[in-house]
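Readers of this paper often ask what the protein records in our data store actually look like. An entry from our holdings is shown next, in its original layout:
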Amino acid sequence: MSTQQELYTSDAAKIWKERLNDKLPDEWRTNVDEFESDIALKKLGKIDHKLFAETRLRMGAYGQRYDNGHRYDGKEVRPVPFPEAFKGPDTYWDAPGMERIKLPWGGLNPAQMELFADLAEEYSDGICHVTTRQAMQLHYIHIENCPSMFRRLGALNITTREACGNAVRNVSADPMAGVSPTEAFDVTPYAQALFEFLLGHPDAQDFGRKFKIALSGDKPGASGLVNIHDLGLIARIKDGKRGFEYYVGGGLGAVPYAAKLYSDFVPEDEILPLAQAICRIYGRFGEKKKRHRARIKFLIADMGWEKFKETVAAERAILPHDDRWSSYIKDVGTFEEKPTTKPGKTLVATGDREFDFWVTTNVKPQLQQGYSAVLITLPLGDATSNQMRALADIARKYGPGTVRTVVEQNLILRWVSNDDVAAVYKELKAIGLALPGAESILDVTACPGTDTCKLGIASSRGLAGELRKRLYAKGPEIHEAVRALRIKVSGCFNSCSHHHIADIGFYGISRNVGGYVVPHFQLMLGGQFENNGGAFGIGTGGVPSKAVPAVVERLTENYVAGRQANEKFRDWVERTGKATIMESLQDLLEVPAYEKDKSFYVDWGDVREYSVKDKGIGECAGEVVTLTDFGLKAADRELFDAQLKFEKSGDLAALASVGPMAYRAMVLAAQGLLKINHPYIGEEPVEVMETFTKDFHDTGVFNDPFAGPKFYQYYHQAHAHRGVGLDKEKTSLFLHESQLFVEAAHSCYARMSLAAPAAA
């Protein structure tokens, strides 16, 4: 019996329940009690698997990957403490899972930080992980321990309710809110009001997928990344009154959509009822069956923007009055954080090169003179239990204890007197958390990837750790223009690390090379983190995982050498062009034969070969190139040309040819797969579509566990319009969909190659 199971089967769970149940808000206590009953029913086989899965997700209990009992911590591959193997369809039931914990606007106090340290130590692997939406995650959690965790969290005003599932997720906000020199006003209390109002709200319980909200204090900065959220608010003052620019329908995922401006000014007392009306429309008209179309961005695309706005306005007009619309925001004007130390003198260079560099990257001046906000760089978003306890002590000692999580997986300590900055640095250094480079190329962001995520295709944490190591080795020597860049790595196309809005982004894919499946990453260039996630990068092509560090080095060298005066990276990418950039990288993209260099066939931070398929070598070390290989290559080339043409499409005539080219890339990819069994099939679109549907979709061969049906639907929908008649925005989205279908074809072929018997 594991330590975790002993915690549950002993009297510990009963003790926590007796001690803490009356300290939880009534509704939260009811939720935890009901979930505890659901666990008992599940153990007895008296609750449906599908229903229980959604129930636990809505309590933040998420299944996780557990391949071989190892996890990459940014320095080394180490074993994790729970070696149980998955046994049944509900992986969270039979083996440790992940617990996601809501932190509205990223707010933390020292007592809560100490609790996280205790929970990580007692129930998890001793690691507190900060997510890219300002929440906290603990991994390797046994589900029987969740009720005790929930009660301990609830006693300190923290909930996991609706941290996952088809619900309103954690409400995020600018971590500098209240202390930013450029904000219109502090958005913190409004974020709290939205969180409290929508938590468990009956009008937010019938969504087809998740719903994410963010608030920003100002428009030009990265702030809350409003542009990539389902609902986003940017603070604004008009005629002396507080209000918000109100955005709806943003999102990344496989296909990124920019949020649309619903109104340039919504008064503060209208933000809650309008959010409620939007939730009702999303719940009523949003897709429920096809999960890949179930986000509000797709509802808006299908309904049309003007029709959507009219429908929301009509719904708002008939909403019954709710006193909470005003009660939740009645004290926002009096919300204020106050320092506990005296303001200090202006920070100046000390001559200590290491310290001065850290100040340059990790210390931000506050609006309030004499105070600074200190960014604490957490490698890959992780802090150990002992580090978290030490950080709680530092927060108490040097300020009012106002700590916030950051979407780039760090923490920020606010209200530090300038006179105390050096002392804070010394204490951070003592616990191994004085790394410089926050919000720079040094501080690579990564999702969990293949370490713990069931959707992971490639090792995002492993790659990010390797990039961090190489970049930190250069440190202050990195060119200033390069240091300002951001790198973000996702283990799959879903963009959990926000690779679409990185200067240099990567997401995991795979390629078949000589009968082996080789880990690769799709390279995205020219995204914009500023302006609230203001622009999306362009896909340029697949890069072997082991070649990524060399590609990053080459890219940044070319940027420094070829940029015009003060030219931003995104502008350099657009001016230089995708074709020229990829041409400069070609010598780095070839995968050596397995017999020559096996390292390319093992992902970063892993201990296993990505593929173990044996394959013979032909005469003269030649390889057999199949019709499918040629077909997929043709699809890649056609799509690449379509993307190039889109880059240069200055008029409608040029744009009109892009969509059909992207559709043709889909046809070529489908035809390539079909040539495995139909070597003489032609390119006639109807024949390819019908045969592909019959041979690959209906049989499930194309459909991997989480993405195949979605990507088939992209092809199926594209077949209806052939890419004709699309405007610029829809063409851009269509290019993303075509890219994903072609990648899925590569993945399908790789899976089929592994499953095929070795040649005699």
In short: DSSP finds 27 helices and 22 strands in the chain. The first strand starts at residue 61 and ends at 62. Residues 1-9, 82-92, 612-624 have pLDDT under 50 and may be disordered.
